[in-house]
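Subject: design request, 158 residues
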């Protein structure tokens, strides 16, 4: 059976509804950017919400290709948010949750263009995930060091 078959029952499931809610709150209401204002921790929490999309892609749709692309989108959002100072601003504009929701909807309904995009991006996403994980590690260390420097500078004033 082809991997891109239709999943009409998914669009009525609670997990899909959770994806829609996460997208609405984090991207439509820009809460992802607000959460991202808390260095390192906010970005980790934002990535935690990506688990809903990964669950739907991996368990409900059973697509490793879609799972890779969804994970990659979430990691891009996390790495952008980890960039000191600039990341807090950019986090308001990169909407990974909307992208992931659109991919899941298109994949579930058998949209040929979305399925083609997922298949095209899957292997590239695999390599990009490795690069993003390394980048996230070093950016988290940098962000933490900047945060500690600012804290020590601020507490040294008193």
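Subject: RE: design request

Done. Sequence follows.
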């Amino acid at each position: 059976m082809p991997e891109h078959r239709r999943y009409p029952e998914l669009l009525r499931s609670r997990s899909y509804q959770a994806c829609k809610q996460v997208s609405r709150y984090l991207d439509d209401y820009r809460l992802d950017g607000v959460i991202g204002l808390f260095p390192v921790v906010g970005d980790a929490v934002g990535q935690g919400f990506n688990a809903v999309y990964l669950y739907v892609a991996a368990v409900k749709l059973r697509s490793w290709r879609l799972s890779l692309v969804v994970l990659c989108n979430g990691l891009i959002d996390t790495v952008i948010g980890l960039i000191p100072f600039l990341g807090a601003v950019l986090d308001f504009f990169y909407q990974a949750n909307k992208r992931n929701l659109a991919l899941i909807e298109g994949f579930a309904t058998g949209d040929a263009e979305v399925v083609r995009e997922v298949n095209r991006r899957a292997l590239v996403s695999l390599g990009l995930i490795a690069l993003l994980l390394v980048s996230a590690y070093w950016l988290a260390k940098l962000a933490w060091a900047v945060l500690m420097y600012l804290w020590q500078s601020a507490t040294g004033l008193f």
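The first helix runs from residue 14 to 28.
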